[in-house]
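Side project, low priority. Logging it here so it doesn't get lost.
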Amino acid sequence: MTQNTAFIALDAMGGDHAPEPMVQGALDAVRLDGRAVLLFGRRESLEPLLKGVDYPVDRLKVVHCPDLVPMNAKPARAMRQSESSMARCFKAVKEGDAVAGVSAGNSGATMALALRYLGRISGVTRPAICLTMPGIGGPRLLLDAGANASCTAEMLAQFALMADCYARAVFAMDSPRVAVLSNGEEEGKGTELTKAAFEHISQTPLNFVGYCEGRDLFTDAVDVIVTDGFTGNVALKTLEGTARFIVAQLKVEIGGSLLAMAGAMLAKGAFEGLKETLDPSQYGGAPLLGLNGPAIIAHGSSDALAIRSAIRVAQRCAEQDLTVQIESALSQLTA
């Protein structure tokens, strides 16, 4: 490897449509953004996709891996596949051949292997998936989005601190507004977990604004939404289902009459702008915060743009020494 080059390790065999969008996303990141990427996967699958393509060979390299982790694999199986593209991807980060790892493979397996090779930052109880969503005035961060179904108040306070560091490092937010997701804004609302988390986060130096409700996820009232992995994953899936329903129903209504179709043509620019705003590909993958090295989990259905964006996020985390920032913030919490 070229030691002076900051490579991003990409699991090119992970994802519903791999390896085509992974290779194209890597090519775009290298040629358009000036990144350096290591493609981990089967040489016979990757090299034909690069044949005849003009790209800087010193910044895009194929690392042959004979094995791959299937999308339906259990984490226990993935842990035994030490020569898989996913395992080798995060092993490269551990050994210093790459500064960050990205995978769109099975999320449970990705979490297990990233944790195995990178380990946790000192003081972190468990890592959390930090999801980026669109919102009024800028992006919203939701965590935990599914890594930990059961959490303690101390863990939610750690999540808040880690997300605050991520928001500052990657999105250049000066003072992210942090809230706990609950069923009401009053302090007396919520479960024992949310009440205890409220108390814990109130004692941190964060810009804590209290509780927020599900209806506040896209408003300009909060930047970071903290919750347990079960609730966060339910909220995420609900938002995804709602978005699909609205889009499908809008298509039905537009196609229902010539007048509606004409109106849609006039509003085409607005629809295109809305589509771009809501497109998750713009935000890339979700970092697994709390690991001793940047690890990005991309959606299984990621296209080339999503992979390119995930590489951008990984690069930003590495450049900003996010791991060091989180470790420093947590040490102050426990001091």
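Brief comment: The chain has a mean pLDDT of 87.
Revisit when time allows.
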